[in-house]
Amino acid sequence: MNRQNIQTQKISVVMAAYNSEKFISEAIESIINQTYYNWELIIVDDFSTDGTGTIINSFDDNRIIYLKNETNRGAPFSRNKAIEYATGEFLAILDADDYSFPERFQQQVNFLNKYPNIDIVGSYVKEINEKGEIIRYCKYPKRPIQIICSTFFVCSIVHSTAMIRRNFFISNNLFYDETFSSSQDYELWSRAVCLGNIYNIPKFLSCYRYSESQISSIKKEEQKMNAQRITSTFIKKLGLEKVENLLKTHSVFINQCTFDKSIQSVDEIIKWAVLIYEANKKTKLFPVRPFANELILRFLKFNRVNKFSNTATLKNVLLLNLKLKSLFFPYLQLFFRLTKMR
């Protein structure tokens, strides 16, 4: 398919905005500046009380559709409303405080046309602060088999990089769960990975803004609880009981909770990893060997975050491999997925 034909495929860009006057202009401009021009931008203003609406209306482009909620309903409701309004073949997500690079849409449409078996495509992302300065370069697993396994542990596709086939989204009823006040994207991907194929293009196509308002203690606790809801669903699908006890260890394992060496031991973490591995071998909820590889990678990060020495880390990893009764060597993946600090 040539470039001219590709440009005939319409993209519906979904954006929820609430009191976003500080950054939304940059987000909108990043859509206008795309090299791919056949798009509609559906912005749902969630009853903002600042100048968000005025800024949106200042853009003179008939491809921009402005909708406003009569009351504050939350981001999931606003995104669902935008998706119901969408007419494009593809849905592209962009949050109001993030922005995309000019080639994002063209590269993602090219990719989806080349690989019709892929239903959702994301990318690497540059994380920036409120001043727009790059904090770090974030990489994620690329292939569908890696993404489905890593989703058990963390969210592995950045919201503002996602492009989705609309037919896939609608036919599988993948609308955002409005009971999630945060982590709505992670909840959506946790369902999507079991229904289709997700791929991350190994290029930096968007910038994700990490702002101070996102990291309050209340917000962190809320995100933690919602992430645990997602993990709980996965654990139950693995056929395991006593979910609450497993969630505590899981939170420590993925560095969501502090590992206290004075009252916790690595043996507890390894025991949990083996339990999850054996449960997955039985249920085959995730591909067995790739899931084990992901388990090892996450365990390595656990050791690094908790500042175990190289010798201790090697000992811990060998012990885990011994307990799993097989040797897993996913370290090439680790090399490609290392997040680089600025």
What does this structure look like?
- By secondary structure, this protein is of the alpha/beta class.
- The chain has 2 domains: 3-214, Spore Coat Polysaccharide Biosynthesis Protein SpsA, Chain A (Alpha-Beta Complex), CATH 3.90.550.10; 238-337, no CATH class.
- Helices cover 45% and strands 16% of the residues.
- It is built from 14 helices and 10 strands.
- The chain has helices at 3-6, 24-32, 52-57, 75-85, 104-114, 144-150, 166-171, 184-192, 217-237, 243-253, 266-283, 288-305, 310-324, 331-337, and strands spanning 11-17, 39-45, 64-68, 90-93, 99-100, 120-128, 134-138, 163-165, 198-209, 340-341.
- Strands 1, 2, 3, 4, 5, 6, 7, 8, 9 and 10 form a 10-stranded mixed beta sheet that branches.
- Helix 11 (266-283) packs antiparallel against helix 12.
- The protein starts with a helix and ends with a strand.
- The mean pLDDT is 91.
pLDDT < 50 stretches? none
Task: Calculate Rg over CA atoms.
Answer: 21 Å
Mean pLDDT: 91
CATH topology value of the largest domain: Spore Coat Polysaccharide Biosynthesis Protein SpsA, Chain A
Instruction: Please work out how many helical segments DSSP would assign.
Output: 14
Q: How many separate domains?
A: 2
Q: If classified by CATH, what would the architecture of the largest domain be?
A: Alpha-Beta Complex
The CATH superfamily title of the largest domain: Spore Coat Polysaccharide Biosynthesis Protein SpsA, Chain A
Distance between the termini: 38 Å
- Secondary-structure element sequence? HEHEHEHEEHEEHEHHEHHHHHHE
State the share of residues found in helices, binned by percent: 40-55%
What general outline do the C-alpha atoms trace?
A: globular
CATH class type of the largest domain = Alpha Beta
Secondary structure category: alpha/beta
Strands, count: 10
Kindly estimate the percentage of residues that lie in beta strands according to DSSP: 15-25%
